[in-house]
Amino acid sequence: MSSRGRSLTAAECARDWLRTRIGDRDFVLSYCKFLIESFSNEPASWRLSPLTSGNQEFAIRMFVWPARYENSPHEHLHWTVAGVLLNRIQVQVMERRNGIATLNVTAQFSGQEGSVGILKAPCIHQIANPTDALSVSIHIFEAEHSGVSSSDAVSDTVWLGPKLDDYRVGLRRRTELAAVELLRRRPCDDSMQLLDIMFDRVGKAAQFAICKALARMSPASAVKRIRMLGENSDGEVASKLQTLANRLSHHVGP
């Protein structure tokens, strides 16, 4: 079998593996736990690091796409498997015309939650989040080409347009909010515990989101956290939080 044939077989195995995991609650909770552990690091030193498979052949990366965002056209020199974990993403596949000066769109795909597919190398493409909310995708790369050592970039990526560096702006905040949303959608004791652990490691936007999620899962925990937020807030915000905690406490049993 040729090396190209072996690569395609590995890609298909990775695709099938991700298809079984992306909708699996335990996998998502485990990934959220991995993210929450990373939030222990100070924001200045924090990185959205990849996971590696047990045999170290593959690296798994999460991308948290801002609303109404698209990156620059780029090419991976090795296969990639991608799946949509939250919301929706759009992928445009392109080809060169007139050398590398012109790129023409040859195909376009819209991936919904749970969608998984393979981008066979070489593949020029562009990823966008066309919605007004955060989108999250999971990507699998061959570990030796995944940029694991740098934790910042996929090492076999060739950018064909002006690279848009604004993806990293606000990434920690987006990842915190994405983790809350993923847990909120999977209400269970483990989700509540992870949200509770997460509360002291994230910024205020995620803390408010955690309170909102806990209000449905565990009103008593939500009241506790809302009051903590109120104690660390000033003026009108503190007053509104105290009022909210008092209202919610009426729904909490003795």
Describe the 3D structure.
This protein is α+β, with helices and mostly antiparallel strands. Helix content is 39%, strand content 26%. It is built from seven helices and eleven strands. It has helices at 3-21, 25-38, 171-184, 189-199, 204-217, 219-231, 235-249; strands spanning 51-52, 58-65, 69-70, 74-76, 80-86, 88-97, 102-112, 116-119, 123-129, 135-142, 157-159. The strands form two sheets. Strands 3, 4, 6, 7, 9 and 11 form a six-stranded antiparallel sheet that branches. A hairpin with a 4-residue loop joins strand 6 (88-97) and strand 7 (102-112). It is elongated and about 65 Å long. Mean pLDDT is 85; it is low at 146-153.
Key descriptive features of the protein:
alpha+beta, 5-stranded antiparallel β-sheet
Count of DSSP H/I helices: 7
Secondary structure tally: strands: 11
Largest sheet: 6 strands, antiparallel
Low-confidence stretches: 146-153
Structural class: alpha+beta
**Distance separating the two termini:** 68 Å
Percentage of residues in strands: 25-35%
Fraction in helix: 25-40%
| Average pLDDT score | 85
Series of secondary-structure elements, N-terminal to C-terminal: HHEEEEEEEEEEEHHHHH
Radius of gyration: 21 Å
Q: Which geometry do the CA atoms define?
A: elongated
Note the topology.
Blueprint: H1 3-21, H2 25-38, E1 51-52, E2 58-65, E3 69-70, E4 74-76, E5 80-86, E6 88-97, E7 102-112, E8 116-119, E9 123-129, E10 135-142, E11 157-159, H3 171-184, H4 189-199, H5 204-217, H6 219-231, H7 235-249
Antiparallel strand pairs: 1-2, 2-10, 3-9, 4-9, 4-11, 5-8, 5-10, 6-7, 6-9
Helix pairs in contact: 2-3, 2-4, 3-5, 4-5, 5-6, 6-7
